[in-house]
């Protein structure tokens, strides 16, 4: 399956030198804010796709680029980024409905429930009624998955309005 992701040059270096990159979401600046949500999602994805022992987080990508998407406006502003086209085995990919995922992120910490029911507005894996192309998550990027890598500096974001 063809996927697209924007990563840092450091991630690309790791892929090239070590052969495989595993995300460690716990190093993210926002992990503390969304820890419960990400732990929940990782558990649910782990029920669908075997989690490699070295994986400490999920890697986000696009399967179909939204019409408005231009890689030059994705990534960290003012820094070098790498837009990659990947070919990942289908069985390693989990589709996520972004708007429903946002509902989960928004509600965790506000609700007492340990786990949201996997239905309705919280069924992040039901992409049948997605308003935008679904995103995907994978556990790793292996060197053989990388089919194209474009290095660029992001000067502004899609989200600057």
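-> sequence recovered:
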């Amino acid at each position: 399956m063809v996927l697209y992701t924007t990563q840092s040059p450091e991630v690309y270096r790791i892929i090239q030198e070590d052969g495989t990159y595993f995300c460690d979401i716990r190093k993210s600046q926002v992990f503390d804010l969304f820890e419960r949500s990400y732990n929940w999602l990782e558990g649910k994805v782990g029920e669908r796709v075997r989690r490699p022992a070295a994986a400490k987080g999920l890697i986000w990508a696009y399967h179909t680029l939204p019409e408005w998407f231009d890689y030059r406006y994705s990534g960290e502003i003012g820094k070098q980024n790498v837009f990659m086209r990947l070919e990942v085995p289908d069985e390693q990919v989990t589709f996520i409905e972004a708007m429903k995922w946002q509902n989960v992120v928004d509600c965790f910490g506000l609700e007492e429930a340990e786990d949201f029911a996997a239905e309705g507005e919280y069924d992040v894996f039901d992409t049948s009624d997605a308003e935008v192309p679904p995103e995907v998550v994978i556990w790793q990027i292996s060197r053989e998955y990388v089919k194209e890598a474009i290095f660029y500096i992001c000067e502004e974001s899609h989200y600057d309005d």
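Residues 45 and 72 are 29 Å apart (CA to CA).
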